[in-house]
Each structure stands twice: as structure tokens, then as C-alpha cells.
Amino acid sequence: AYQTFSVSSSFLLLAGSFMFLGRSIPAYWSAGAAAAIIWIFVTVPAGAGIFTVALPVYIFIAAAHFLSGIMFLRSLHLNAAGKYMVGITLILWGFHFLDYPFAREHSEMLPAGYVLGSLFKISLIIGILLLYFYKARADIVREREQLSFFIRNASDFIVSITPDGTVIAANPAAAHAAGREKPSGEKVPLRDYLPPDAMSAMTDRMRRIERRIEGNERSALSEQFEIPVRAAGCGEIVTEVMLDPVLAPDGKIEHF
Questions:
Q1: Closest CA to 198 of 190, 186, 188
Q2: Cα separations in angstroms, 182 against 171, 174, 252
Q3: For 5-28, how does the pLDDT look when each residue is reduced to its tens digit (9 = 90+)?
Q4: Model pTM greater than 0.85?
Q5: In the chain, alpha helices (H)
Q6: For the segment 237-254, what is each residue's pLDDT rounded down to a tens digit?
Q7: Residues 149-170: tens digit of each pLDDT
Q8: Distance between first and last Cα of the chain
Q9: How many CB atoms neighbour CB 189 within 10 A?
Q10: CA 31, 34, 40, 46 torsion: positive or negative?
Q11: Rounded distance, CA 150 to CA 45, Å?
Q12: CA 142 to chain centre
């Protein structure tokens, strides 16, 4: 039973490695796992010796670890520390599995073998955590860059407004409409973008959203309406506004 589970877990490890790297596991590895399990169920009832039963099985297990480790080491898009820890651990663990059929005859070596196997498991866990951490961080950076690119190149006006009516960020289209050559990090009052009547309407909509949040009415927080907006060189133009709140961890509005 132990050897059957070892074959199954090694196959799943290999399949997971292929999946993590965005590839499909070849069919011959499935056939190899099935052959190793069949070998166990044929040789054990036949009374074969432990060496005869274990050697082909652990050759498959070691090969699965070798290939998994090599794939991680050869991957170009993974974090270096994580991929080297995972790859080298898997290869060394593969060699460790190969010594099992030989060490099985020497019981005094088994405790050291179990300790070594446990160390490989710990090292593998740490390496996988590193890979997932850096992969998640890279995904967040990429999504921010894509969002930033969209905002910079959008023809629509996109601004971030604090609840007190201060513009803390604006894309190039909005900055140009307000008569600014390019966006800057400085905070400017919303009245630079809106005429008085539109400013009053915007403030009213913001207060309306705040009251919904205070009353735990979170099903429809967005406000969609039309107001006149100042446009450099064009006077005022009527623009459709989509006002969405961005909430801080404490549930209060961070900005719109």
C-alpha cells in the first residue's frame, strides 16, 4: 500500500509541476504510473523479494522527481530563489528514493532515511511558498501596470476624489480638460474641474453614497448622472459621470 501511494503521489507531483508551468503531462507518464502500480499488485502476491518489487517502482518515483526538478530549474519566468530550492530539492529527493531498495535491507539506515526525507519535504514546502509569493507579487504588479496603462491612455476623464472634494489623481485627459499640461502628484480642488452648479450636484451624490454606507445599504453604491464639466478651450461640456466609492479596510470611503 505504501508503495502504491508513493507512485500515485509522485505522479500527482509531476502532473502538478506540468500544470504549474502551464504545460500538459505526456500520456506516457500516466502509462508509467499505471505500469508501476500493476507491477506491485503482481509481484507482491507472487512472493517476490522486496528488492524485486521496489526497484522498478522507485525508479519511476525517482524519475518523476528528477523531471519535476529539472523543469523548475529550466523555467525562465520563475523567481530564482524559489525555483532553485524546489528544483534542487526534487532532484536530491529523487536520488534519495533510489537508495530505498538497497537501504531496505539495512534497518540501521532507515531512521536516517526518514529524517532526510522529512528535510526534503520542509525544503520543498519553503520553495513552493517562495514561488507562490513571488508569482502573486508579479501578478499584482502586472495588473497595476495594465490598469495604469489603461488610465493613462483612456480618452475618458478619470479622477480620484477624496470625500472632502479634493482631486488626488487624474489621468492625462482629465488634467488637460482642467487646463493642466500633464498630471501631477499635487492635490487640487474639484472646483477646478467643475462649475459651481455641477460641484453642488457632485457633492450631493457623494453625500448620498456616504449615507448608504453608514446605513449598510451596500447593494447599489454607484451613482451615474450627467453634469457640465470644464474643458479647456471648449467652455463647458455635459459629461456622463460614473461615481464609485473605494472603501478602506475599516469600511469608510477612501476616495471616489
A1: 190
A2: 8, 9, 30
A3: 888 888 888 888 888 888 888 888
A4: no
A5: 2-20, 27-43, 50-74, 80-98, 100-103, 110-153, 172-177, 196-214
A6: 777 777 787 777 777 778
A7: 555 555 567 777 787 878 777 7
A8: 60
A9: 13
A10: negative
A11: 66
A12: 11
